[in-house]
TrEMBL record:
Recorded GO CC terms: cytosol
Pfam families: NUDIX
Keyword Hydrolase assigned: yes
Gene Ontology terms describing biological process: nucleoside phosphate metabolic process; ribose phosphate metabolic process
Ranges for domain Nudix hydrolase: 41-171
This protein's name: GDP-mannose pyrophosphatase
Keywords: Hydrolase
Species of provenance: Alteromonas naphthalenivorans
PROSITE patterns: NUDIX (PS51462)
């Protein structure tokens, strides 16, 4: 047994597309019991809190998996460059989704999305000193809308359950706890 609690005996990719890979690992636990573990592999992403005074900017888009239009902070990954510098990625995603450029990009921290089945994590940034430009949306984002919201309204939307994106709620909470907001 290795120094890990679970040893990987074998691994095979069972599905792959340009956004994700799903693999199935045969494992052995410290007790000697064997089993299977399904793992979703996705590149890390950046989530950005664009703030101008008491206004934060969310994006609204249709999320096919839950069949709803929902609000969230701008966020994304570059599948063609998964090792991109997180700050460069954050500035790029901010520009792409909102058209904003920021004179200040403050790093808040790193979190995992859902490490019970997925290796994806995310870097959280607060963007200030915003200048509006043109959006550069991907085809998958063609329905995306920018929604300005007062910070107090955002907090109500989070506590009332209107904002359902866990990364958005977590990013806001961590930024607030660390004094960025």
């Amino acid at each position: 047994m290795s120094d890990k609690d679970i040893e990987t005996l074998s691994s095979k990719v069972v599905y792959e597309n340009k956004w994700l890979k799903v693999r199935e690992d045969k494992i052995r636990r410290a007790s000697g019991n064997e089993g299977l573990y399904g793992v979703v592999e996705k590149p890390d992403f950046a989530i950005i809190l664009p703030i101008d005074g008491d206004i934060v900017y969310l994006v609204e888009q249709y999320r096919y998996t839950v069949q709803q239009r929902l609000l969230e902070f701008p966020q994304g990954a570059w599948e063609d460059n998964p090792d991109a510098d997180p700050k460069v990625l954050a500035a790029g995603e901010l520009k792409e989704e909102t058209g904003f450029t920021a004179t200040e990009m403050h790093y808040v921290g790193f979190q995992y999305l859902a490490y019970g089945f997925c290796n994806q994590g995310y870097h959280i940034f607060v963007a200030k000193g915003l200048t509006q430009g043109e959006q550069k949306l991907d085809v998958e984002e063609e329905d995306l809308k920018i929604v300005p919201v007062h910070i107090k309204e955002l907090e109500s939307m989070i506590t009332e359950g209107t904002i359902k994106d866990a990364s958005t709620c977590n990013a806001y909470g961590l930024a607030r706890l660390k004094g960025f907001i």
